[in-house]
């Protein structure tokens, strides 16, 4: 029996949210309710505001206006450790101190539960061991993180997020720089966590076909605003892809998953079709 089963999953909602870097507004007047217990994928062209939105949802970026609500209360009005017990974030390209072991990294996920009255407990140890098991890293627990493959390292960071034991997981491009086999490995792991434990997962993805295969809900972001949102069948259309990515494509049914499959139409393909 899993120790991570979510009985009362948290809700996460952005209302009229505007976010900025150095005075430049990146996300503007955006309203989004994250489907609870589902996988949501944020898609859009480079620089459209996907990662900025994720940072705003994670309380790493204070709104210029509007608010993010975690369980109906402004996320900035809640204590940091309380938020960290409900919401976990895996940023792009996370960095760990040289020589840190996998288990030590995963154990950092228990930090929100530690204080001067409550130090490391048998429950903490149990949760860390379970996170290692779920991510198939038990045999690497005492290995230095920097000696692992890219896919193994990414699993270790996900294990740390799992050890945080949150109802919501936010992941910024969790498959970046991984080869195709490791991308599928990570996405299968996240899908399994969602299916078995009901975790709400929000992730930024670049691969549109992977987003359609794994996500229940797609959010297409354009210039800091939501251009379209809904199930993959309603969002992954040739018209929306053209508007959001400035790319011509055809949409087919994935022969394996049955989900929408985007096939880009390149200039080379157009030239071949004409000849």
From TrEMBL:
- Any single biological process term in GO: iron ion transport
- Identify the domain of life: Bacteria
Taking the first listed entry, what is the main subcellular location of this protein, grouped into a coarse class? membrane
Question: In this protein, which residues make up the domain named ABC transporter?
Answer: 12-248
Q: What is any Pfam family matched here?
A: ABC_tran
PROSITE patterns hit by this protein: ABC_TRANSPORTER_1 (PS00211), ABC_TRANSPORTER_2 (PS50893)
User: In the UniProt record, which is one GO cellular component term?
Assistant: plasma membrane
**Where, subcellularly, is it found?**
Cell membrane
Q: Which UniProt keywords apply?
A: ATP-binding, Cell membrane, Ion transport, Iron, Iron transport, Membrane, Nucleotide-binding, Transport
State what protein this is by name: ATP-binding protein of ferrichrome ABC transporter
């Amino acid at each position: 029996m899993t120790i991570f089963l979510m009985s009362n999953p948290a809700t996460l909602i952005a209302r009229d949210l505007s976010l900025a870097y150095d005075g430049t507004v990146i996300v503007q007047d955006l309203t989004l309710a994250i489907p609870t217990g589902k996988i949501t994928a944020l898609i859009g062209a480079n620089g459209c505001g996907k990662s900025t939105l994720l940072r705003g949802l994670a309380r790493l970026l204070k709104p210029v206006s509007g608010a993010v609500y975690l369980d109906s209360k402004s996320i900035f009005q809640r204590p940091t450790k309380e938020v960290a017990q409900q919401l976990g974030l895996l940023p792009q390209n996370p960095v760990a101190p040289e020589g840190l072991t996998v288990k030590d990294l995963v154990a950092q996920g228990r930090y929100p539960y530690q204080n001067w009255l409550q130090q490391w407990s048998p429950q903490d140890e149990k949760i860390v061991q379970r996170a290692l098991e779920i991510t198939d890293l038990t045999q690497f627990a005492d290995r230095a993180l920097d000696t692992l493959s890219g896919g193994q390292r990414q699993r270790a960071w996900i294990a740390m997020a799992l050890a945080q034991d949150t109802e919501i997981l936010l992941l910024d491009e969790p498959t970046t720089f991984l080869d195709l086999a490791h991308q599928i490995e990570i996405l299968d792991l996240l899908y399994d966590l969602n299916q078995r434990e009901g975790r709400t997962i929000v992730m930024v993805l670049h691969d549109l076909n992977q987003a359609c295969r794994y996500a229940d809900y797609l959010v297409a972001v354009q210039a800091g605003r939501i251009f379209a949102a809904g199930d993959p069948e309603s969002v992954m259309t040739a018209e929306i892809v053209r508007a959001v990515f400035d790319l011509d494509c055809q949409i087919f049914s994935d022969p394996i998953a049955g989900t929408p499959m985007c096939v880009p139409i390149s200039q080379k393909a157009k030239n071949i079709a004409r000849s």
